[in-house]
Every structure is written in structure tokens, then in C-alpha cells.
């Protein structure tokens, strides 16, 4: 046999082996599905995967065999080997800090696309109408914007992202409503707390309980200025500082690395008994991220409250609930007077995260003249 014949035979065998390997690789995921396996993992990807109602191809793309394992492997390689974020929704900062990259968070950080004059006026008018509507009924109102993590800890953001202006939408809104008498800027309180401890999670986009406590105190102070029967805010001395290691939180989950990344969870354990309990849905934790949570203090004659909120109120709720005989936490961005009337609320708190000012503009017409 000539040398060329031997070489050709080797190439032919190599091609057959490659073809067999290729067919094996592409058939294994389908074989696993046929055998009843599901390669999808909504927790790993931190999203709802496609169902059969979305179509066969959409379902298979999210559930093919070994998908979750491949996603995790890719995430580990990108994060630990190439030092990048495996998810476009997460910004990798320095020293283990992760930042939210969706909801125009990058635009907010660099100060791009400020609110128009019309949008700023809509916020000012909405806050003032809400205040006047409540005052006419003897009620109290507090409006606040929760600062995003990149506002409080800009020092750990990537150096490749440079702000183009110092003012953000949060600044525009708070400046516009500063004269309303009901707006609370929680940033000074958070900055003071930051000076001696970490007040936001490393692997989550929100403040931790210690940051929430710092924000809650000026909110309650503003309520008491309008309605003195609201009890004083709890102080740091009412809590014992506790810390323990936990797995990665929401941002780590978005990268599929919640089991690989860890942080110290800085919590606060109350030294005195909390009185408020969740009555609807009964048995749910007060920190559950549900559309509606109702708490009550049995036998209390304190004011009743409605809290319009987003995810930043999750950590605020255990503190706020102690100040009201009944508190209804509604996950929504619109102030709806009918809901306040229905609940017989004496107090309304409106909290919105800075990043949500990019996908929502207030509607003063909902409150009326």
C-alpha cells in the first residue's frame, strides 16, 4: 500500500470518528429529553423558561438535555477564567461587587437620557396632588426614591463606565419635589451608615437590612412631622448586629453562580418582639415579593397605611409594619386614590427605585385636581 493510500485511509477513519462523535454529541440532549430528562433550570437562569405552549422549538431551546450544566460551565469559565460577567444583565465590579445592568441602570449611572421638562413637571405635580388629596382627608404622605447600588457604591463600578453628567433622574425628581414638604431624600442617612458598615448586598442589587434601617428612619420622621401619633422609629440599639455567610443572591443567580459566589449577610435581629404579623396572604413572610401583602397589629389603634412600593420596600416592610395597626403593601407604581379610600388609610408612603424612573412616568391625572 502506498504512502498516499495509507494517509487517505487514516483521513477517512478520522472523518468517520469525527462524524460519529458529532452525531453522538448532538443526539445526547434529545435522547435525555426522550428518556424523560429536563435540562432546563429556571433557578439557574433566574427566569421563567419556555413552556410547551410557547412552541416545540422554544421549549426545546430552554429544556434540552444538559442545558443547565452547560450554562453553569460557561458561567464559571467567563467569571473565574476570563473575569467577565456571563450575563448582560449583570455588571461585574471590583472586589466582588456586582451591579444590576438592566432597566437602563447603565444609562442612570452615566447620567445619559435625563428626564424631559414635561416628565419632571409630571412628577412634581403628582407628588403635590397626592399630598393635597391626603391632607384634605386628614392624612399624611411621604414620597421617596430608593437609591440604586451604583449611586451609593460608585467606587466599585468598572472604570470603563464614566458618567457624562453628575445629575441623574433621581436627582431631577427629588429636586423638583424638594419644596413639597413630603419628599424624603434617604441618601444622607445611608451615606452616614455606609461610613461604618456595608449597607448594600455584594451579590444583590438592593440594600441589606442595615441600609434599609437607615432609610426607614427619616421616612418615619417625616410621617411623624405630619401625624405625631405614628410611633418613633426603631433605633440601631433596638437590634443586635448578626452576620453569617450565604450563597449568592439575585445578581449571582442571574449569572447562574449563586452556588459558586458567597457573601456575608449583614442582618439585624430585634431585641424586642415585633408585633405586626402578615394576615394576607396568611402565613406568608413579610419579605415575600408579592403584589399585595397586608400586616396588622392585633388590638392596635395606630394609623392605617398604604405603601406603594417596588422591590426596595422588601427590606423596609418589617420596620414600617410596626408603626401601623394595618399596613397594605402594594407592588405598583401608580398612586391610586381609590385603593387608599378602600383601605381607610391615614398614611400613604410611596417608594420607587431610581432605576424605575426610566420605564415609568407619574400620571397626575390619576389623582385629579
Describe this structure in words.
With 369 residues, the protein is α/β, with parallel strands linked by helices. It folds into two domains: 3-72, no CATH class; 115-198 and 222-234 and 274-366, no CATH class. The chain is built from 13 helices and eleven strands. The chain has helices at 3-34, 42-45, 56-63, 67-81, 105-110, 117-135, 149-152, 169-176, 187-194, 209-226, 250-254, 313-320, 337-343; strands at 90-92, 98-100, 140-146, 183-184, 239-247, 262-270, 277-280, 292-296, 304-309, 326-331, 347-353. The strands form three sheets. A seven-stranded mixed beta sheet has the order 4-3-11-9-10-8-7, sandwiched between helices. The chain has a two-stranded antiparallel sheet with strand order 1-2. A two-stranded antiparallel sheet has the order 5-6. The termini are far apart. The mean pLDDT is 87.
